[in-house]
Every structure is written in C-alpha cells, then in structure tokens.
Amino acid sequence: MKTMRESWTDERLDDLRDGIADFRRETKEEFASLRSEMKEEFAAVRGEMKEEFAAVRGEMKEEFAAVRTEIKEEFTAVRTEMKEEFAAVRTEMKEEFRALRGEMQEGFSALNERFDAMQRTMIQFGAGMAGAFGAALIGLIATQL
Questions:
Q1: What is the per-residue burial (b if ≥16 Cβ within 10 Å, else e) of 91-114?
Q2: pLDDT the model gives residue 1
C-alpha cells in the first residue's frame, strides 16, 4: 500500500473535490439514464402484457362461445332424443294397455258367462226344489184327506 500523505494541499483538495463532483455528476447521469431506460422497458413490458392479456381474453371469449354453442347443440340433441324415446315408450305402453284391456274384457266376458250359467243352474235347481216341495205338499194334503 502506498503510504498516505500527511499533508493535503489546496490543489490536491481541489482535485479531489472536482473528482468527487465529476463522479457525482456521472453517477446522476447514469441513474437518470438507467431510470429512463427502466421506464421505457417497463412501459414496453406493460404494453406487451396488455396486448397479450387482450389476446388471451379474446381467445377465451371465442372458446367459451364455442363451448356454449356446443353444449347447446348437445342439449338440443339430447332433448330431441329423449322426446323421441318417450314418444316411443308412450306408444308402446298404449299398445300394451290396449292389449291388456282386450284380454281383461275377454276374461270378464268369460267370467260373466260362467256367472250367468251358475245363476241359471241355481234358478233351475230352486224351481225344481219348489216343484218337488209343491208335489210333496200336494201329496201330503191328498193323503190326509
């Protein structure tokens, strides 16, 4: 290391002051330049970000619109398919109920015929019993006289 001088002359102090002033001025200029450059760069980055975000928003808007349209079309197709299927099920159920009604009517007709036959048999039996009681009563009266 150099040995420090023990005395400072006015000339050396002026040189030091001028050196510090130059250093300070250069530092200020560098900071101003750096600030300016940073402002420009940040402004450029902000501009790029705005453009990119706008582009992303636009893409998202288009994609969401496409998805909405696709979902609407799918729901419409599902609704149409369900309507057709329900109509087919209704038609099938109506046919089955008609067939069941026909079978039930046939069964009730056969049952009515059996009840009618049973009723005729009961009437004939009742009439035969009444005739037999009448004949027995007449026979009893005739023998008692």
A1: eeeeeeeeeeeeeeeeeeeeeeee
A2: 44
Q: Which amino acid is at 79?
A: R
Q: DSSP letter at 6?
A: S
Q: What is the pLDDT of residues 76-96, one digit of tens each?
A: 999 999 999 999 999 999 999
Burial class of residue 128 (count of CB atoms within 10 Å of its CB; 0-12, 13-18, 19+): exposed
CA distance 139 to 145: 10
Q: What is the pLDDT of residue 66?
A: 95
Residue 134 C-alpha from the chain's centroid: 85
Could you give the CA distance from residue 116 to residue 110 in angstroms, rounded to a whole number?
10
pLDDT digits (tens, 9 = 90+) for 31-49: 999 999 999 999 999 999 9
Which of 145, 121, 51 has its CA nearest to residue 137? 145
